[in-house]
């Protein structure tokens, strides 16, 4: 009998769950701390513990599927590799569109002549000599390339030629924009390709860690990865297109919520260590965002679950508010909880906290620590300040005040954190939950000292933030409730369908909305509540979400196995491969089918559409079979745009989308 193994790697925990062959019940589940930078430790510990708990031999595993929030977290936190963008046939002004300049964040751009027109004909000759010169002038440290050319989705020839040259000269991974989207928006395609290139190393390390442990156990089952729309893809495809795994974890959580609860219509809120993800389950299926996934402030062209992701989790940074009565704020940056660091380094943490508590004057860095995230030799420094910080961390975690000694070194530390080479430990909601007795996984005594130290901080009026550790912890949990309620309200207003004449974030913070939540009773009486239940997922959901449901006046569903819902969702989905194409009409009697291999001209619209459909169907089936589907189902969506001229409809453009779907093949025996 074969078993199905689902794995979810999050920012704090890696979960593993075993389902029976028919995916009807949970056989066993386990959690392990996510281990960075070597992810194999956490993945292996979770898999081993799940197999032991279920009494299952490795040879009985017939399918393995992986979901992750690592790509989402990397974009939210501004992390990832350093990449170069090859920008073909665009004007310099187009770098300012679609958030592309912000996403580049100083990474180099090689702008060269080339590109095509809307009909797929060459607009200018591709300047390969300029590309060669640009490659030679690049700084050290580039980990990959993104290539985007004007109208590449109408003719990808220049992107392919540039890709081949870059690979030949550098040997580094290259992402072409036409491989990720059929859309025409060039800067947005470039943004999507850029983010994909930035994530390749991260996802490759994750998949390699998983494959390595499976091989050591002797598990020969296929490895799948969850895409952002909840569908499964092969590990090989996920390596090439890691951008499609953004919102992988949240998409898996939606599938898990449906499987665990049977709810058809609900808001699903999944709280992790770094983010809270909210999506709508309607008619038993997740809503898909027609505009493309938005993560970390960037709107991509990746098809994914319509998800609102906010930097709020159990490990969110706690910071004092900036103004009078501003209170505290959580996120968006993730910290290592003090209680967790103390579990591994008790002497360092307790000695530092005791000294800070004994001092009469509080220091700026009290209660905070810097943690190196590399193994072996330290990463290369980009300047003397980086080098100084890296040198002080060579022996392991230290007090933050010992790692940075000047304001300029603080800026250097921020750069190292953004590159994922260093993490900071400090007060988080997880520490507050330990103080209040809601969690007991790590060092509660260290959490209490850290909260007592934080409570000494002064607000803008000079008053202490809280009287003691328990009062401070209660403030943190109350703030988590407020921000979670706001996140859920924003999602509810966005998905409601009514034209509210304002943005969801404005409506959620409107005085009338807040009065409705308060149940205000005066000359005006107000009531506001959610009309659908909320399914709370995540290991810490039972600790926090009771108060959230009470505040929103809705039924809060906290299912069994909510802490491993993502791992469950990872293994109950289907493979679904989409391929899109367009037929354009650039002139009378001329219809161009823009095939995956390049444009093909026909004299009739029907013939062009038929040729496109045949090519797309073949490509969708090829991808589905490569992903391990033996019996794929094909479905086709058509959209014809016509104009009326002299009372007769005239073909303008035809759109086709072909989907091949099915369950992945499972290992025999």
- Class derived from helix and strand content: alpha/beta
Helical segment count: 21
Radius of gyration: 26 Å
Proportion of residues in extended strands: 15-25%
Average pLDDT across residues?
A: 90
| Number of strand elements | 29
Distance between the termini: 8 Å
Q: Which stretches are low in confidence, meaning pLDDT under 50 for 5 or more residues running? A: none
Shape: globular
Characterize the main sheet.
Answer: 6 strands, mixed
> Considering DSSP H and I runs of 4 or more, what fraction of the residues is helical?
25-40%
Oligomer: single chain
Strand arrangement within the widest β-sheet reads 3-2-1-4-9-10
Put the structure in a nutshell:
It is built from 21 helices and 29 strands. The chain is of the alpha/beta class.
Account of the 3D structure:
37% of the residues lie in helices and 24% in strands. By secondary structure, the chain is of the alpha/beta class. The chain has a domain of 88 residues. The strands form 7 sheets. Strands 3-2-1-4-9-10 form a 6-stranded mixed beta sheet, with helices on both faces. Strands 11, 12, 13, 16, 23 and 24 form a 6-stranded mixed beta sheet that branches. The longest helix has 32 residues. The model has no long low-confidence stretch (mean pLDDT 90).
Pick out its properties:
alpha/beta, 6-stranded mixed sheet, globular
How is this fold's topology laid out?
Layout: E1 3-9, E2 13-19, E3 26-33, H1 40-54, E4 61-68, H2 70-76, E5 83-88, H3 100-104, E6 109-112, H4 128-136, E7 144-149, H5 157-170, E8 174-176, H6 186-217, E9 223-226, E10 232-234, H7 235-240, H8 248-261, E11 266-271, E12 276-282, E13 285-286, E14 294-295, E15 298-299, E16 307-310, E17 316-320, E18 328-334, E19 336-337, H9 338-344, H10 346-358, E20 369-372, H11 384-392, E21 398-399, H12 400-403, H13 407-418, E22 422-426, H14 429-435, H15 444-455, H16 469-495, H17 504-508, H18 511-518, E23 534-537, H19 541-552, E24 556-557, H20 565-572, E25 575-587, E26 590-595, E27 598-602, H21 605-626, E28 633-645, E29 648-662
Helix pairs in contact: 1-6, 2-6, 4-5, 8-20, 9-10, 10-15, 11-13, 14-15, 14-16, 15-16, 16-19
